[in-house]
Amino acid sequence: MQLRHFLQFNDFSREEYEYLFERTRWIKREFKQYRRYWPLTDRTLAMIFDKNSTRTRLSFEAGMSQLGGTAIYLSTRDTQLGRGESVEDAARVMSRMVDIIMIRTHEHDIIKRFSENSSVPVINGLTDEYHPCQIMGDIFTYTEIKGSIAGKTVAWIGDANNMCSTWLQAAELFDFKVHISTPQGYDINPELIELKGTEHFQEFVNPHDAARDADLVTTDVWTSMGFEDEAEKRKKDFSEFCVDSEMMSAAKSDAVFMHCLPAHRGEEVSAEVIDGPQSVVWNEAENRLHAQKALIEYLLLGKIAIER
Ligand code: CP
Ligand code: NVA
């Protein structure tokens, strides 16, 4: 098996995602029918967290055990990584002991350096720049509920953060458009995102204009992990960037609302939107589990013949 990592969304081709989504559907269906699928008995996933997590930890840990393997939680607070052991040495050692590694950390460069020294697949469980596992689950969710995302319009309202950058990479791969509206000073920097071009996104000053006729409206916290010092200033700067019913009404009448969670009701989204009929946030959260199981299976075992 060729060693592959999943560090950013464009590490995989569209054809690979189509395959992963087929596997996700099968894995989800089998699991819901209580049919055991244990291809990873004796295999171990190490999960390294340098930031908090609920969904990512739980979905990887539960997912690995549902595949017959084991997951080990490691935090930089209580491993030698927190006491100055180099990322390179940690990667060399850990990849001798486990079969696959997931990391949630700060700068993308850290996970890149780790992967360059790892002899087993490395998965990005969120960096300051990207959150590819989340967008993989989100596009699976959109497809499951509404069909193909190709040719659709996604409205991104708020901070041009790791989620926004990953949506932009996905737009190029799946051929949809992202309409972005961020407060002044928080806009995207396409050069940092490794995009092929600019034709898959458009920027809007007014968030209502970005939401107009969108098929999917999405947002995220105003202050991402690692940026807490800016929280008070951000609350003022983002005050006009709440996805509320009025903003949703600018989108298509059958548009869905997504949020990777955790959410702050009354800040980036109103309670009536996130708890309302257009919201698919709980499906999104659940599908992280199924999609990541397909991802782990693919990275460790390669393509499996699809059973229908
Ligand atoms: N959406 C997401 O990654 O959630 P956690 O921070 O809880 O893992
Ligand atoms: N943008 C958020 C996503 C959390 C899942 C953060 O990085 O904190």
User: Which term fits the overall shape?
Assistant: globular
Helix count, per DSSP?
11
Q: How do the SSEs run, as a string of H and E?
A: HEHEHEHEHEHEEHEHHEHH
Radius of gyration (CA) equals 19 Å
Number of domains: 2
**What share of the residues does DSSP label as strand, in percent?**
5-15%
Looking at the chains present, what oligomeric state does this protein adopt?
Answer: single chain
Q: Mind explaining what this structure looks like?
A:
The protein has 308 residues and is an alpha/beta fold. It has eleven helices and nine strands. It folds into two domains: 9-131 and 285-301, Aspartate/ornithine carbamoyltransferase (Rossmann fold), CATH 3.40.50.1370; 134-284, Aspartate/ornithine carbamoyltransferase (Rossmann fold), CATH 3.40.50.1370. The chain has helices at residues 14-32, 55-66, 87-97, 108-116, 132-146, 162-174, 207-211, 231-237, 245-250, 271-274, 281-301; strands spanning 44-49, 70-75, 100-104, 122-124, 153-157, 177-181, 201-203, 216-219, 256-259. The radius of gyration is 19 Å and the shape is globular. The protein binds phosphoric acid mono(formamide)ester (CP) and norvaline. Residues 126, 161-163, 220-221, 224-225, 260 line the site of norvaline. Phosphoric acid mono(formamide)ester is lined by residues 53-56, 126, 134, 260-261.
List the helices and strands and how they pair.
Blueprint: H1 14-32, E1 44-49, H2 55-66, E2 70-75, H3 87-97, E3 100-104, H4 108-116, E4 122-124, H5 132-146, E5 153-157, H6 162-174, E6 177-181, E7 201-203, H7 207-211, E8 216-219, H8 231-237, H9 245-250, E9 256-259, H10 271-274, H11 281-301
Parallel strand pairs: 1-2, 1-3, 3-4, 5-6, 5-8, 6-7, 8-9
Residues 53-56, 126, 134, 260-261 line the site of phosphoric acid mono(formamide)ester (CP).
